[in-house]
Write a structure and sequence with these properties.
By secondary structure, this protein is α/β, with parallel strands linked by helices. Helix content is 39%, strand content 23%. It has nine helices and 14 strands. Helix 1 crosses helix 3 and helix 1 packs across helix 4.
Length: 304
């Protein structure tokens, strides 16, 4: 099976639109349509529902998607290894981070790496730790900065993080005081990222706390705004404090204080492309030569 057709199908499914998929891959819309027709003829049944609003996978296509994704990945790996044998320094490295604080570290590594390997393209995305580690296991990502999860990957530890309480500036505790974690059961509490397997949700479970959720925020930025407005308190990573910091938010240490293991999850060496393997080796070398890059600046208020 033509792996380029597999990639085209996956792009069509992801975008939900053949014209947009064609644009992303550099094909004409008619060329993209012919490619999908040829793939369906080769497969023996329809793979896409087509309508005025776009395309979506058929039930049969859904069953084949894991195999199609693997064929597409192997096609890319074959091409990149063949180019590496010819001495061509090209390819893609896909990176994810759950913590905006680490963009600085990733940016510095990427900048130095790109000076040495200018034709290797680096893609960076932000998501939750559980989603990112799934991306590593499904070969959509090579490298990600996350809080520790179970999975088949190499783990390189970074400095630990800890959870803190965000409260309105008028809250009757000084910044040097500790916020008893059980207070989340009585204070109006803002839920961060409903239904996601976040660090704060894990910390609540580990401490057997059932928060008194009265409001929900989509991310740390909106949670900080809601806390500043006096709508409640919340728990978040100390790493997010500077990112979502506001003058009307007081950051308090917790009692007890849940710690979070932070690190770099990398796909196993035998599953990495030549370019991703080079990036891994470069990152490990940077950890030895530039240790300061891997220590994110924590908010001074969170350290009190």
């Amino acid at each position: 099976m033509d792996t380029e057709k597999c990639k085209a199908l996956l792009t069509a499914v992801h975008t939900g639109n053949l014209t947009e998929a064609a644009r992303k891959l550099g094909y004409t819309p008619s060329g993209m349509s012919r490619m999908m027709d040829a793939l369906e003829q080769e497969t023996g049944f329809p793979l896409l529902y087509r309508s005025r609003s776009g395309v979506s996978p058929t039930a049969e296509c859904d069953r084949l998607l894991p195999l199609i994704e693997e064929l597409s990945r192997l096609g890319d790996l074959y091409k990149e290894n063949a180019e590496a044998i010819q001495g061509l320094d090209v390819g893609d490295v896909r990176i994810g981070t759950a913590y905006p604080t680490y963009y600085s570290m990733i940016g510095k590594i990427a900048a130095e790496f790109s000076e040495k390997h200018p034709k290797i393209r680096i893609e960076i995305e932000e998501d939750y730790s559980s989603s990112l580690v799934q991306g590593v296991e499904e070969h959509r990502l090579d490298f990600c900065v996350i809080s520790r999860r179970d999975g088949n990957f190499e783990w390189i530890p970074l400095p630990k993080d800890h959870m803190v309480a965000w409260v309105p500036a008028s809250f009757p505790l000084s910044e040097g005081d500790r916020f008893p974690i059980k207070w989340f059961e009585k204070e109006p509490c803002i839920e961060l990222s409903h239904s996601q397997d976040t660090d704060n949700a894990r910390a609540f479970r580990a401490c057997r706390i059932t928060p008194n959720y009265t409001k929900t925020a989509m991310n740390a930025y909106s949670a900080a705004a809601m806390v500043e407005a006096g709508l409640g308190v919340t728990m978040s990573n100390a790493l997010f404090t500077d990112t979502a910091g506001r003058s009307g938010v007081k950051v308090l240490r917790l009692d007890p204080e849940p710690e979070v293991d932070i690190g770099i999850a990398i796909a196993p060496k035998d599953q990495l492309s030549p370019s991703a393997l080079k990036f891994r080796e470069f990152t490990v070398r940077c950890m030895k030569e530039h240790a300061e890059w891997f220590r994110p600046k924590e908010s001074t208020s969170a350290r009190k």
